Amino acid sequence: MSKHLYSKELKANNHKVHWIKSLLKEGLTPEMRILKVCSKSENLGECEKAFISFHKSQGVNLVNSTCGGEGGGCIPSAETRKKLAQAKLGTKHSEETKKKMSQSHSGKSHHFYGKKLSEQHKAKIAQTLKKRLNNEV
Description:
This protein is an all-alpha fold. It has a domain at 1-33. It has five helices and no strands.
């Protein structure tokens, strides 16, 4: 739970982040409670689904993005992935967004800032590029 309280983690725009920010604003801290200790032989996914279902039926506004039991998130079907891709098709970033993205990936923010390639690595890259130029790859 503590990792969710770092400012880096609170930049997303979703229900969980808004909930955590509202608690922090009121001087409260979210806490995690153990509701049930399950043995390894129990179906943990079914147990999680039951708890989420119960609390939602009681009117609790949970931050769970799924009904539980997936072990970390759902894998969308091929049909769903195709629909999501179609929805995004043709959308373009605004010039302002492009500029922000560029700035967020440059200078000290760049993943390779201050690092250097070894001579061996440079030689491997050069060899690969030569093969590409000669259509060997």
